[in-house]
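[Automated response] Your request has been received and processed.

Submitted sequence:
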Amino acid sequence: MTATTTSDRSDLSELGRSEATLRAFLHGLPGVDQVGAEQRAAQLGTRSIKTTAKAWAIDLAIRMVDLTTLEGADTPGKVRALSAKALRPDPADPSCPHVGAVCVYPSMVPYAAEVLRGSTVHLASVATAFPSGQAPLAVKTADTRAAVAAGADEIDMVISRGAFLAGRYKEVFDEIVEVKAACDGAAAGLPGSPRAHLKVILETGELATYDNVRRASWLAMLAGADFIKTSTGKVPVAATPPVTLVMLEAVRDFRDTTGRQVGVKPAGGIRTTKDAIKYLVMVNETVGPDWLDPDWFRFGASTLLNDLLMQRTKLTTGTYSGPDYFTLD
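Generated structure:
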């Protein structure tokens, strides 16, 4: 890790005090070489791994899945069933690892909590007027506190893209700070509630440029994000390898500068084992093995898990199970 003086870290902590200092810092970040980023991501996507490494990678990818349902038609029964699958993805194979988390709307948190209570599977909830982010701050913080009170130990918040694209960086910064504070259940008057980890969704498909992705990544981390996440999965362009590469470089440089490690979560459009392994190769080659852990890298997915399970069965038994062998999510 690059040595950083106490004064350097103190200077970073002061950035959120004014719009001018925050803007100067974010626009002073090195620009992203678009061609270079896309070529590097494509090159990493061509790497192949041996069969033994593939088995390890599949199990790791399963442990990194945030098994997600974010539909208006979600019901308590559907959420309970999804949570049971999170605990035992393949009921016929007890050696199959559990997933990283279940991710649901705040109103569905109590039903997931019933099933996950006592396990090590995390319970994540989207909040802050997901997916648009278009709500007053008081509504966003109330949404967050309600999810934490119901049992969520991870909050996936979405930034105000309109404010960010209009250059109102301090507004976005302050919202993240306030939502981070609302993640602390005890501080919010909920004794015994742990502080939920905060994943900040950038909605990179709406940020237009890689430079904006880098700026938004740094803005979120400076404001206290525990994870930065690509997408809601509700816009046409979700996670892409070049965008994830830019975000991985940002968390690497942030740790070199501040000493604090932040996780990354690509979400939306990652559907196959082949895709997941490409992302794991990118993580290893860009930020190193410290991030090859569910505490620091996750996949936001609803359909990826079934393909991982089918490929795992193929490696174990030599034959494919049909796509209808595992429950649909």
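Summary generated for your ticket: The chain has 13 helices and eight strands. The first strand starts at residue 65 and ends at 68.
If you did not submit this request, please reply to this message.
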